[in-house]
Automatic annotation (TrEMBL):
Assigned EC number: 2.3.2.6
Location(s), subcellular: Cytoplasm
Catalytic activity: N-terminal L-lysyl-[protein] + L-leucyl-tRNA(Leu) = N-terminal L-leucyl-L-lysyl-[protein] + tRNA(Leu) + H(+); N-terminal L-arginyl-[protein] + L-leucyl-tRNA(Leu) = N-terminal L-leucyl-L-arginyl-[protein] + tRNA(Leu) + H(+); L-phenylalanyl-tRNA(Phe) + an N-terminal L-alpha-aminoacyl-[protein] = an N-terminal L-phenylalanyl-L-alpha-aminoacyl-[protein] + tRNA(Phe)
Name of one Pfam family that matches: Leu_Phe_trans
Protein name, UniProt field: Leucyl/phenylalanyl-tRNA--protein transferase
Described function: Functions in the N-end rule pathway of protein degradation where it conjugates Leu, Phe and, less efficiently, Met from aminoacyl-tRNAs to the N-termini of proteins containing an N-terminal arginine or lysine.
Top-level division of the source organism's lineage: Bacteria
Organism field: Kribbella orskensis
PANTHER family in alphabetical order: LEUCYL/PHENYLALANYL-TRNA--PROTEIN TRANSFERASE, LEUCYL_PHENYLALANYL-TRNA--PROTEIN TRANSFERASE
């Protein structure tokens, strides 16, 4: 089971009464207790290279619904091409996601250090797509009870990241699937092709409150 860290010395504002901006707070730190407290409130950190650390809770939150998930034919084909593994190459996955040559890269050294520490404590996990002995793609995210908050994904081979997402859905699809939350932050055109939808922030917060009462999926416990 994950190791619970000391409580954060910071207190976040209530997300339920946040304004129309996706940014809810600024400052604080990336200590394990702070990061976990944020996710439990529906927030996630993303650094600003020109200012303090920002804490986000999108007004329109991207999720992938686990219960009744129906992958497209192309996604099913992509999934069949790769073997899915969990936590066998976390360092490779997070560093591939942080590749500064990628458009919109935001994962800096502080984020890598924080999430690697949380991985060692049992809270952050990598889901990997393997083609034989080659890492084809993957993602990493935070698992707290029935919440899996996806942070970033990458691919080295075509459809590697797609397969990792499909594999993650399989790992979350158990008897609690209707109440589990797979958070993907925002819906992009690419994520929409994988089944992502947007829900209002208020609904997301209510669903997270319920999800936090659930047990971890077997793959992450």
């Amino acid at each position: 089971m994950p190791l619970e860290p000391p409580a954060s010395v910071w207190d976040f504002p209530p997300v339920a009464v946040a304004g129309p901006s996706d940014v809810v707070a600024a400052g604080a730190d990336l200590e394990p207790g702070t990061v976990l407290a944020a996710y439990r409130r529906g927030l996630f950190p993303m650094p600003d290279s020109h200012g303090p650390l920002l804490w986000w809770s999108p007004v329109d939150r991207g999720v992938i619904e686990i219960d009744g998930y129906a992958p497209s034919r192309s996604l099913r084909r992509a999934r069949q091409r790769f073997e899915i593994r969990v936590n066998t190459a976390f360092d490779q996955v997070i560093r591939a996601c942080a590749d500064p040559s990628r458009p919109g890269s935001w994962i800096d050294a502080d984020i890598i250090a924080s999430y690697t520490r949380l991985h060692r404590m049992g809270w952050v996990h990598s889901v990997e797509a393997w083609d034989g002995d080659e890492l084809a793609g993957g993602l990493y995210g935070v698992a707290i009870g029935g919440l899996f908050a996806g942070e970033s994904m990458f691919h080295h081979k075509t459809d590697g990241s797609k397969a990792a997402v499909a594999g993650l859905v399989e790992l979350l699809d158990d008897k609690y699937a209707a109440d589990r939350v797979l958070d993907i932050q925002w819906v992009t055109d690419h994520l929409a092709t994988l089944g992502a939808v947007a829900i209002p922030r208020e609904q997301y917060i209510r669903r997270v409150e319920r999800a936090l009462t659930l047990p971890l999926p077997d793959a992450f416990s």
